[in-house]
Design a protein that fits this description.
67% of the residues lie in helices and 0% in strands. The protein is an all-alpha fold. It starts with 14 loop residues before the first helix and ends in a 9-residue tail after the last helix.
C-alpha cells in the first residue's frame, strides 16, 4: 500500500453534521424568503417563536441569514489557509475542504484543524 505524504488529506464531516447543518440552514432560508410555506402552527412553541420573528423582525432575520453565509465563506477561506499551513497542496483536495467547509462550517473546519501532518497514522 502506498503511503501518502499528507498533501491529499481529506476527511468527510460526520453525517450528523451534514444533516443538521443542511436542515438548519434550509429552514432558516425558507423562514427568511418563503415563510408562507412553513407550517408554523405544526411546530408548537418553536413555530410560534419563528412566526413572531418573521412578523416582527424580518429585516434582522435577513441580515442574520446573510451573516450566517458570510461566516461560512470566511471559514472556507480559513480552511484554504490551514490547508497551506499543513502542507495540503493538492488542488482537488483543497477545493474539497473549501466547499465542505463552506457548506458545513466549523463541523468541517474542526476536522482540518485537528489534522496533524507530523503525527504518523497508526494502522
Amino acid at each position: 500500500m502506498a503511503k501518502s505524504d499528507g498533501c491529499d488529506y481529506f476527511k468527510r464531516t460526520s453525517l450528523f453534521w451534514i444533516v443538521s447543518v443542511t436542515l438548519a440552514m434550509g429552514y432558516f432560508t425558507c423562514t427568511v424568503f418563503v415563510p408562507e410555506k412553513i407550517p408554523f402552527g405544526l411546530l408548537g412553541p418553536f413555530g410560534t417563536f419563528c412566526r413572531y420573528l418573521v412578523d416582527n423582525y424580518a429585516n434582522i432575520m435577513y441580515k442574520g441569514w446573510l451573516a450566517a453565509w458570510a461566516i461560512h465563506v470566511f471559514e472556507a477561506l480559513i480552511a484554504l489557509k490551514v490547508c497551506s499551513d499543513k502542507g495540503i497542496n493538492n488542488t482537488t483536495t483543497r477545493c474539497m475542504w473549501f466547499f465542505q467547509t463552506f457548506l458545513f462550517g466549523f463541523a468541517s473546519l474542526g476536522l482540518l484543524l485537528k489534522y496533524d501532518p507530523e503525527r504518523p497514522k497508526q494502522h
